[in-house]
Amino acid sequence: MIDVQQLRLYKTGKVRDIYEMDNDKLVLSHSDRISAFDIVLTDEKTGKNAIPDKGSVLARLSRYFFEKAENAGIKTHFLEMPKGQENIIVVKTTDVFPVEFIMRHYLYGSYYNAFRNGQMELPPGSERVLAGKLSEPVFTPTTKAEKGEHDVLLPYFRSMEEGKEILYRIGDMLTESCDKAGMILCDFKIELGYDKDGSLIVIDELGTPDACRFWPRESYRTGQRVPSKDKQIVRDYLVDIGYKKAVDDAKSKGLQPPSPPELPSWLVEKVRETYIEIFESLTGERF
Ligand code: 5GP
User: Fold this and answer.
1) Span 144-156, average pLDDT
2) In angstroms, what is the span from residue 275 Cα to ligand 1's centroid?
3) pLDDT by residue (tens digit) across 52-65?
4) Structural domains of the chain, ranges and CATH numbers in brackets
């Protein structure tokens, strides 16, 4: 049993709280917070916009895929999930590589927006419509560095190729699991860090509905939004009620984003049910 209250809080992330266990171990405690467009929507003091069971789904799915990756010879930071504490995992400390490794199989999300604005080309032979199939997987890394920290990336430059190889192997593993569950893996993100031997390993979360877009095969159509079984449900809602536009307008004027709206109870329940359904269909385990 790990009592996180007894540990030093190292960092509060958008969704995970990170505690120091000893020199080379961290404890990741997965909360029921949800974020979208880099804004935490949940107020933990009041419980507003918390998604019940979300922390356990994320921790258990990450554990499942970290173990699967290890079995396939892909190194990860996962060490253990303490018995009876299903929202906690113990991991190796790493030196975080400040890049989000994103792989896409379909034209969607920010890649679709960038394509429409003429900022991105597609591999030849791709379907040039919303949700169109890309003729080959596309790697779109984004930096995790804050403004003014971009030079931090230079020493890591050579690791991009190695990271990309890991991303492709993880892509194959996740696609295989999605295939078996009757789902399409639209795109996903992984994060990487260096362990104490200097190896690049998978960290953070893996194969969760926070970091992947999962599409039920039977509802896939091109040229329109696909009813995604993941955090996209919340993003779509925030777009539809105009909150995303208000955030973008504020950002473009250098202002603070408006405070998040209260999510309706049907949406909270829909997200909860969807996350549990994804856990069960990908792992074959009961939640
Ligand atoms: P997009 O760039 O289209 O918004 O996202 C591409 C993919 O990467 C999606 O599967 C999305 O869930 C994932 N992704 C992008 N940025 C983040 C992030 O900051 N956090 C998480 N958890 N996933 C992200």
Assistant:
1) 58
2) 16
3) 999 999 999 999 99
4) 4-92 (3.30.200.20), 95-230 (3.30.470.20)
Average pLDDT, the chain: 94
Task: Spell out the residues 6+ positions from residue 168 whose beta carbon is closer than 8 angstroms to its own.
Answer: 103, 137
Name the residue of 96, 183, 189 to mutate for ligand 1: max ligand atoms within 8 A of Cβ. 189
| Cβ 210 vs Cβ 230: under 8 Å | yes
**Closest ligand 1 atom number to CA of residue 109:** 3
Query: 134 CA distance to ligand 1 centroid (A)?
Result: 17
Q: Is the CB of residue 34 below 6 angstroms from any atom belonging to ligand 1?
A: no
CA of 210 to the centre of ligand 1 (A): 8
Q: Does ligand 1 have an atom closer than 6 angstroms to the CB of 211?
A: yes
Distances, alpha carbon 123 to alpha carbons 52, 137, 159, 182, 259, in Å = 40, 9, 24, 26, 39
Cα of 144 from ligand 1 centre, angstroms: 12
**Average pLDDT score over residue span 1-11:** 95
Calculate how far, in angstroms, residue 143's C-alpha sits from the geometric centre of ligand 1.
Answer: 12
Contact indicator for 183, 229 with CB cutoff of 8 Å: yes
Q: From CA 99, how far away is CA 145, in angstroms rounded?
A: 8
Q: Is the dihedral of CA 209, 215, 219, 220 positive or negative?
A: positive
DSSP state of 48: B
Give backbone dihedrals phi and psi of 259, rounded to 5 degrees, phi first: -70, 150
The DSSP element (H or E) to which 173 belongs, if any, is: helix 159-180
- Whether residue 33 contacts residue 14, with contact meaning beta carbons closer than 8 Å, is answered with yes
List residues bridging with 142 in a β-sheet.
100
CA–CA separation, 214 and 39 (whole Å): 22
